Amino acid sequence: MTASSPPRSPLPRRVRRAGTVVVWVLIGTLVLVALAAVWIGVRGFLAAGHLRDAQQSATSLVSSMADPATAAASVPAIAEDTAAARALTSDPVWRAASLVPWIGAQLDAVGTAIAAVDDVVTTAVSPLATSTSGFSLAALQPVDGRFDLAALAEVQEPAAAAAAGTATALASVDDIATGTLLAPLAAQITEVRDLLDTAHIATDALSRATALMPAMLGADGPRNYLVLFQNNAEWRSLGGIVGATAMIHTEDGALSLVGQASSGDFTQYAQSVLPLSDELTALYDEKPGRYIQNVTQVPSFPVAGQLAQEMWARDSGTRVDGVLALDPVALSYLLRATGPITLSTGDVLTSDNATALLLNEVYQRYQRPADQDAFFQTAAAAVFDALAAGSANSSDLVTALAQAGSENRILLWNADPAQQAILDGTTLQGLGPVTDAEHTAFGVYVNDGTGSKMDYYTHLDVGVGWCTDTEGGPDAALTVTVRSDAPADAASLPSYITGGGGNGITPGVTRTVAYLYLPAGSELVFSSSEGPSDAPGFGTGTDGGRTVLTWTTDLTPGTEATARIRVRTPSTPELSAQVTPVLPDNGGTIVASCSSAG
Predict the structure, then answer these.
(1) How many whole angstroms separate alpha carbon 177 and alpha carbon 105?
(2) Model confidence over 112-152: pLDDT tens digits?
(3) Measured at the alpha carbon of residue 197, what is the angle toward residues 208 and 137, in degrees to the nearest 5?
(4) Potential cystine with 64: which of 71, 181, 292, 517 (Cβ 3.0-4.6 Å)?
(5) pTM, full prediction
(6) With contact defined as beta carbons under 8 Å apart, do 327 and 351 qualify?
(7) Whose CA is closest to 139, among 128, 130, 147?
(8) Separate counts of helices (H) and strands (E) for the chain
(9) Distance (Å, whole) CA 429 – CA 25
(10) DSSP letter string over 499-528?
């Protein structure tokens, strides 16, 4: 007979009551969490709808930001959507949920992005739209040769505020760590960032233009500006050899073409007109300071501008207030806005034929340099007259200038330091590659060494990339390929195109001298060159503390040469190369090689 277990004593009522309370607390908590999730989900869904509507409207708005009067009509609807989306994602429940690990990061990203967009609309775009509702792009171009300075002055303050507001909003979205977000949300944040970046570029450009243009247009007194036309058929670091030049006079908003000259009209000086640093002299000799054709050989437009200013002052007696450079490609963009222009020669200059006509056909048509120069001057004067008359389409003109500026085809230097500072951080200044905490940049600057116009047929491909086959520190790679696409019978081309055997180079052969600027603070790991068997290796110099490799190639038609550079450099998110602007069809992007063997 086995003994039975003693009966269990029932739990005290107090304990049973406590357990019941815990259960109900858990149930209550789960209910609250569920309700909060539903609340957040519903509000998030509604907010997403408003944000989508706002983004669609904002995309249209940004595309018309260049014309504030056009953009103003769509602002109220956008403001209503962004305000609603912000209200839905900033209540106490949403803010509390943002403190929950992982989930909070998703909610916080949504809230930050929506707040940034709303801030741009309410504190930047809306005031700008209100103050510029009567503003037209016509104010950014002359009417009968004169700009409306009062209209420009009225826009300057709200444009500056809008630029500052979009910059702040963009910075807040840039700080969002998208790597921790769900893929669809990360993609949405990237879209918002791109939208804000575009808005900032537009408002910043308008702010700088309205701040700088009145002074340059003679609001405070007469001004003179020297215009350099770079010829991409004969490469120089900043674009091309300086051929035709012109002086523009501005006064009280009016502008006029008061003088023209070709490169052959300038004095060829025995020594540089201004002192060049020992580093620049070692790399480029004194040629940039002796010949107007070579001022753009130095990849710094402030240096080129000051050299050109001094040469013009010595030869003409007028010291200009600034220097502007552009090339025939930029001219072709402007012709999209003006439409075809009939020259006194009977030629019709269009956006489609400008580069071929000015960079190649003119040399085949006219054998005498004087006749070539006369044609360039005729073309330049005709385009200036069309622009000064205000016959260009306003929107197309702004688009053309923006594209040319982004491609480094328009460069500007002001002798007044305060006015030059307005251009800080823009491509218009024509400065060298910048390496800092966020960017690692090479510089690839090509120059014709033939004394010819053979670069019309020369192709330049550049690629950069991070190397992953190293331990310890990251390596950055640069690959540069130069190819001659000249016709097989290039030697039979006019001597002005081939160089006629000058500089000891056989007609039909193209010599290119490249200056490869390594990122500041980097260490060269290796450099290799392959191509024609007689191609020399690399020379070495410095410029502003940056190592510069010089690389010379002689190419017959159909041949190419490739340089491969690898450097050890601090890792930064963005890797790039600043490259000489060549003809659009003559430049390309390739994959960089991390191997010395290619």
Answers:
(1) 9
(2) 777 777 777 777 666 666 655 555 555 667 777 788 888 88
(3) 45
(4) 71
(5) 0.83
(6) no
(7) 147
(8) 18, 17
(9) 67
(10) -TTGGG--TT-EEEEEEEEPPTT-EEEEEE
